[in-house]
Amino acid sequence: MIAPLLVTLREGLEAALIVGIILAHLARTGNRRRFGAVWTGTALAVLVSLLAGAAVFVTVGELEGRPEQIFEGSAMLLAVAMLSYMVVWMRRQASGIGAQLQERLHAVLSSGSGLALMLLAFVVVVREGIETVLFFFAASQTTTPVDSAIGGLLGLAIAGGLGLSIYRGSRWLPLRTFFNVTGGMLLLFAAGLLGHGIHEYQEAGLLPEIVDHVWNVNWLLDENSTLGRFLSALVGYNGSPSLLETLAYLGYLATSFTYYFRTGQRRRGIPERSPRQAS
User: Fold this and answer.
1) Could you tell me the residue ranges of all domains in the chain?
2) Residues 185, 190, 195, CA angle at the centre, nearest 5°?
C-alpha cells in the first residue's frame, strides 16, 4: 500500500501545484472568470488518465504466461526510466517551474482564447496523469489489488488536501524538503522496480540469471510474509535474488543517488517558492 500511496501522493501533489499556480496567477491578474476553462481542462485530463489506466489494466488481464511477464517487465523498466528522469528533473528545475508556467500563461491570456487556456491546463495535468498510471501499474504488481487501490486513493486524497491548503496560502509545508525526501524514496522504489522488471524478463527467458541465487535469506525474512511483501513493494526486497538482479539493483542505487545528491548540491542557495509566491 505504501508504494502506490507514495506514487499518487507525489504525482498528485505535482498536478495540484500546477493547477494552483495557474489559478493563483489568474486570480492575481483579475481573470477569475477563466477558472472554468482551467477546471474543464483539468477534468478532461483526469478522464483521459482514468481511461488510459483502465486500458492498461484490461490489456494485462487478457495476457497470460510469457506475454504477461514480458509486458509487466517492460512496464516496470519503463517506469524506472521515467521515474529517474522525473525525480532528477524536478530536483534541478523546481525553482523555475512557476516562472516557466507563468510565461506560458501570459502568452495564453494575451491570445484571449479560453480554449487555449483549457488546453494548457489539460496538457500539463494529463502528463502527470499518464505518468501516474504507469507508475501505479508498476507499483501494483508488487502488492495486492486492494492494498494498491487503498494506497492510491489515500495518496490522491492527501495530495488534493495539500494542494488546496497551499493555494489558500498555507506555508507550513516545506515543498523543497518534501520533494527532496520523496524523490529519494522514489529512487529507492525505482531500484526495486528494476529488480522486479529484470526478474520478469528472466522468467520469460529474455535475460540470463548468471547465478540463480546469490543468497537465500527467506529463512530469516520470508519475501512472502507480510513484512516481506511490504518491503518488496517499497524497496524491492528479494530473499533469494539472482546475480543480475543484485548487480542491477546495487548499481542503480549507487548511480542514481550519487547523481541525485550532486544535483542537489549544485542547486543549493536557491530560495524555495510556494505557488502564491511564484504568482
Assistant:
1) 2-278
2) 130
